[in-house]
Amino acid sequence: MEEMQLNVRRRRRRRRKRTSRWAQILVLIAIVSAIGVVCWGLSSRQDHTVVVELLGDKTITLEYGQTFQDPGARATALLRDGEEPLELEVEAEGTVDVHRLGRYTIVYTAEYEGRKGSVSRTVEVVDTTPPVIELKNDPDIYTLPGQPYQEEGFTAYDQCDGDLTDRVERQELDGVVTYTVTDSSGNRAQVERAIEYKDPRPPVLTLLGEEKIQITEGAGWSDPGCTAMDNVDGDLTAKIQVQGSVNAYKSGTYVLTYQVTDSYGNTAQVQRTVVVEPLELPDPVEPEGKVIYLTFDDGPREHTEKLLQILDKYQAKATFFVVNNEKYIHLLDDIVQAGHSVGIHSVTHQYSQIYASDEAFFEDLYAMQQIIYEQTGVKTWLMRFPGGSSNRVSMKYNQGIMSRLVKSVQLKGFRYFDWNVDSGDGGGGNISSDEFFNNVIQGIQKKKYPVVLMHDIWANSVDTVERILQWGVANGYTFQALDENSPPCHHNTIAN
Ligand SMILES: [Zn+2]
Does 233 reside within a domain? Predict the structure, then answer.
């Protein structure tokens, strides 16, 4: 600008040398002033800019439904150097719908003196929130162990998609139900429900056989038992506990209680009544007059024939409880032919064998009955227990067997006889004739129906019998054989 002014002056000096110096100065001032005005005018119109700056981030990510608060923008007009920038008003254009996923643009604009400035911002509305699954609980619904879960209900709601209940997938595994649902933005929700198993049902006990069972003393008792089925545990029969017991050899009423508990603590109980009726036998026939029942055990043997002759001489009848002495077994027929009674004692007389069990005893008993039958044609039901019904030796082999046998033999039709007069010849026959005689005579006088224990296996015993017969006849007795209707002679059986 200064250069331009100098050039003009020089040219004028050359062209107009006569112009007055003052005039020249005035014109010069006027020109310089005019140029200055023009230059200022030009520069004041073109030398500003409008700047728009974002407040906040260029891109804002917004969760669906979240309120959008526009941080806005700031605009300034920058004037010539040295002047304060001018704050401008900003206009924002564009909308953001927070309930619609998408990308929105907001443009911020400002204007000053014909100049504009703008800046834009991107707002992205996204959905990163998974749906919410809610499980319902119904206290009335329970799941039996081992059974499929009965759904109590559930809902699934997504802030963006709304109700997604229909799209929930269920999976049941190892007592856990897993519910899964995915919204349209791919957000997955999963919740689990631990199934509460409950079993309020007790097992079902079913009696086998009747609820009330009646048996007769001696018939034996075998519990038909009970079965137990449980809705969860299945067959619990093996776990049934029985309270109470039945003594089938003693009349009375017995109650058995069967009880079982399932694995969830439910207990079931059922009862059975067993009535053991007393054994009813026909009334015995009372003999007339004074009677002596002589009985001889453990024969026949070598002295039996002699004994038969002695008895015959006095027309005395006796009873022989016999064993299987094969050498002399043919004498059984002679005994029967002579009008005596034959009763069963034992095949072997081995305590350890015959008292080993009830079955072993009866096996021996029936075998001897059969031998007698084969020898005599008589099926006898008379019997005497080896050792008598009060023996203690059987305890060694089978506890309580005698108290059972005394009932069961009678129920099966046998009539057993013990003795109430002991001759004392049981201990190996080491007894004097006088002692033997006195034992018998004194014993007889104390009993209404004396049943005398003797053994025809000892010579001494057989020889002394004649004295007894003589004494009996002299004292008005008759000697009779036992039969099934004779008055019973039973020891007190040891309840062993
Ligand atoms: Zn004997």
Answer: yes
